[in-house]
Amino acid sequence: MAIDSEKLIAAMQDGLPICPHPYTNLAKQFACTEQEIISAIAELKDTDVLNRFGVIVKHRRLGYNANAMVVWNIDDEHIERLGEKLAAEPSVTLCYQRPRNLPHWPYNLFTMLHGKERSAVIRILDDIRARLSIDSDYDVLFSTRCFKQRGARYF
């Protein structure tokens, strides 16, 4: 039985139950076996549609309240190299490029850091800047309130 990829992703994007057989409900939805669901997921992985399953942790409930978006003004000729290096940092949870909005917003690279205290985040940032020899302008925007946190929804 061929399982529609978009329908399968839509059925999984709100999460799977934490239980011994998380694919049971999916198999019922698609009127197939658990093994067929697992095979369909493997096919999505093999074709690079999916690369992993993840867990969304409510980090604030664990005491990680010092969450900072670090915005960088990186020279265009260095952005790819530096973006890749920042993305490889274990403490960086998001890293992406966006266009500048001159003259008011010169920043073109964005990274997210999390910590229990602002001072800890600043120490992480200072360490990254020193190790990667980043001397570009940057700003640290600490979160003040969370309105929503969830994974992306595509279908």
Compose a concise summary of this entry.
By secondary structure, the protein is an alpha+beta fold.
Top-tier CATH class of the largest domain? Alpha Beta
Major sheet details: 4 strands, antiparallel
The helix tally amounts to 5
As for the number of domains, it is: 2
Beta strands, count: 4
Order of helices and strands: HHHEHEEHE
Summarize this structure as a short list of keywords or feature phrases.
single chain, 155 residues, alpha+beta, Alpha-Beta Plaits, 2 domains, 5 helices, 17% strand
Tell me what the structure shows.
By secondary structure, the protein is α+β, with helices and mostly antiparallel strands. It folds into 2 domains: 5-46; 59-142, 2-Layer Sandwich (Alpha-Beta Plaits), CATH 3.30.70. 32% of the residues lie in helices and 17% in strands. The protein is built from 5 helices and 4 strands; from the N terminus they run αααβαββαβ. It is elongated, with a radius of gyration of 20 Å. The model has no long low-confidence stretch (mean pLDDT 93).
List the helices and strands and how they pair.
Elements: H1 5-12, H2 24-29, H3 34-46, E1 66-73, H4 79-87, E2 92-97, E3 109-115, H5 118-131, E4 137-142
Antiparallel strand pairs: 1-3, 1-4, 2-3
